[in-house]
Amino acid sequence: MYEMCVGPEKPGGALVWHVMAKQAAATLCGQQLRQRIAATDGERARHCPDCMSSFERLMATTPC
Q: Reading across the β-sheet that carries 46-47, which strands appear in turn?
């Protein structure tokens, strides 16, 4: 399972929506979100392109 989390695109950068596995320590783009940011703060944020690319590849692979 995956969840969407709001966080900076890069340290100190604009907020974006990242994809993160439920029990993971880092987003699919490799960021470690140091604090949880309320979803309402990211209402108009775009999606992290690196997370979305990784997620697309994960969804396209055939399960073993």
A: 2-8, 15-21, 46-47
Contact 9, 15 (CB under 8 A): yes
State the CB neighbour count (10 A cutoff) for residue 54. 16
pTM of the model: 0.85
Tokens of 17: 């929506």
Cα angle 35-37-9, degrees, rounded to a multiple of 5: 85
Q: Is the pLDDT of residue 7 over 90?
A: yes
Catalogue the E-assigned strands of the chain.
2-8, 15-21, 46-47
Place of tokens 């993971």: 24
